[in-house]
From TrEMBL:
<dbReference type="InterPro" id="IPR003347">
    <property type="entry name" value="JmjC_dom"/>
</dbReference>
<dbReference type="InterPro" id="IPR041667">
    <property type="entry name" value="Cupin_8"/>
</dbReference>
<feature type="domain" description="JmjC">
    <location>
        <begin position="1"/>
        <end position="104"/>
    </location>
</feature>
<dbReference type="GO" id="GO:0000049">
    <property type="term" value="F:tRNA binding"/>
</dbReference>
<protein>
    <submittedName>
        <fullName>tRNA-yW synthesizing protein 5</fullName>
    </submittedName>
</protein>
<dbReference type="GO" id="GO:0031591">
    <property type="term" value="P:wybutosine biosynthetic process"/>
</dbReference>
<dbReference type="Pfam" id="PF13621">
    <property type="entry name" value="Cupin_8"/>
</dbReference>
Length: 157
């Protein structure tokens, strides 16, 4: 969900990463496996350096809007109090009712990821060269139907 972070007291550093950098963040569910964004283990996470980092320092009284899908990492620079206010902007039935903070994937995205996992599991039944061929076809279909035009033009995949 969209999030408004209000820094009441103390100071906090916030590092943000755009949703377009998701492929470089080593995602596991709604979290990045890269826990130390200042000193990432580049042996384990070599593509992390390709993620565009946006950083700010919040002082008492500052408000920071964190849009849905933006990954963020916070570090308290002083003891303080911060308050998050979340709100939903998709239709109510898009969200998991048991997820008050909107950290879970929207229902349609969760179903799509489950279908992809089933498809990838099915590919494991094929010989390696067939897996490669049909895996590439799956990637092509995803690029054609899911990604924005600008992403496809970058030639990333």
């Amino acid at each position: 969900m969209d999030n408004l972070l209000a820094q009441v007291s103390g100071t906090k550093r916030v590092v943000l990463f755009s949703p377009q950098d998701a492929l470089h963040l080593y995602l596991s569910g709604d979290k990045s496996e890269v826990l130390d964004v200042d000193h990432p283990d580049l042996q384990r996470f070599p593509d992390f350096v390709r993620a565009g980092r946006h950083e700010c320092e919040l002082q008492p009284g500052d408000l920071l809007f964190i849009p849905a899908l933006w990954f963020h990492n916070t570090l308290a620079l002083q003891f303080g109090v911060g308050v998050n206010v979340f709100w939903r902007h998709l239709p109510a039935d898009s969200y998991d009712r048991k997820d008050p903070y909107g950290n879970k994937d929207p229902q349609a995205a969760a179903r799509a990821l489950q279908a992809l996992d089933r498809g990838l599991h099915a590919l494991e039944e094929l010989p390696a060269d067939y897996r490669d061929f049909y895996g590439r076809r799956m990637i092509q279909r995803i690029q054609q139907r899911a990604f924005s035009k600008g992403f496809r033009e970058t030639g990333f995949m």
